[in-house]
Amino acid sequence: MTASDSGADRFGPEDIPEQAAAWRAAGAGVALATVVATWGSSPRPAGSQMAVADTGRFVGSVSGGCIEGAVVEEARRIIAGGPPKLLEFGVTDEMAWEVGLACGGTVRVLVARIGGAGGLDPAILDGLIAARTAKRPAALATALKNGAQALIRPDGGEGALALTEAEIDIARAALRRDKAETIEREDGAVFVQPFNPPLRLILVGAVHIAQALAPMAALAGYEVTVIDPRRAFATDARMPGVALRTDWPDKAMAALAPDGRTAVVALTHDPKLDDPALAVALRADTLYIGALGSRRTHAKRRARLAEHGFDAAALDRIHGPVGLAIGAVSPAEIAISILAEITATLHGATP
């Protein structure tokens, strides 16, 4: 059985490890191609990845379209028995323009098959998938000279690649920053690729803005949950395909346990609903907290929350009025401004 006739192509573009494992389970030879370094205006950042089957099928991207064909052909040769190979491509200005960049750059890609002598360890892939299924962070460390790997989790690690405690600390720091790192060693570089749980967005209030913001955020990679105890608002018809919770916001928020990869936006304009959710968000290491309302409304909100023991530093974490000041008027425009502000906060940008 091959990947082409197994029904194994059931994963999305971000589910690279899962698709690779499914193709292998269906009897296909599979290689992984990973961007390990970039210079200039590279179309895809370090850590971007493709899975390639021996049939020529692939999922993911290492360049946005510039070099995928060449990588697929090299991957198929490596699947047939070649050792891991480090490829380097120059992306010309013309190629870059075709994928929306102003100028070109250079991309270095590690291609290695999964399994077999000299291949990537399938057990490491299984461990990574298990961590992703459990929505637990894990970092994959890969030696660029031979493909030896280690899987690092916050509570431990495994694999044939030996790492010092200092190197493990670098890998865990890469997880916290959600950014790939390269460790330079005397015996060759080690590439560290973080795999974090999905970003989450919790919206308090199944209102018009939430109807626009939920699908936008889902497209940006967020798992979206909408909290609204008002059952006339929180309906599948109003919020199709969105996880809904109709318990009181403080209870719903406690169950959802917001963390450093969670954005929380209060949209109801009702202190009875917004304030309890904001209080839970403020007590957590939340990525982003926003609340709808005018400056006057936000001043009153701060005063109420201050009465519950939150100091000025804590209250300053609330983005209110929520969203970037882009002159947004309609619910969709306001949703765009909110998602833009969340994105800026995620990447440490200063709008």
Using only C-alpha atoms, the radius of gyration works out to 23 Å
Counted by DSSP, the helix tally is 11
CATH C-level category of the largest domain: Alpha Beta
Q: From the coordinates shown, what is the CATH architecture of the largest domain?
A: 3-Layer(aba) Sandwich
Task: Enumerate the strands of the largest sheet in spatial order, edge to edge or round the barrel.
Answer: 13-12-11-14-15-16
Give the overall form: elongated
> Helix/strand-derived class?
alpha/beta
CATH superfamily membership of the largest domain: NAD(P)-binding Rossmann-like Domain
The sequence of SSEs as H and E is: HEEEHEHEHEEEHEEEHEEHEHEHHEH
CATH topology of the largest domain: Rossmann fold
Rounded to the nearest angstrom, the distance between the terminal CA atoms is 52 Å
Mean pLDDT: 90
Q: What is the domain total for the residues?
A: 3
Name the helicity range: 25-40%
Total count of strands? 16
Poorly predicted runs are 1-7, 99-103
Strand percent estimate: 15-25%
Which sheet architecture does the biggest sheet show? 6 strands, parallel
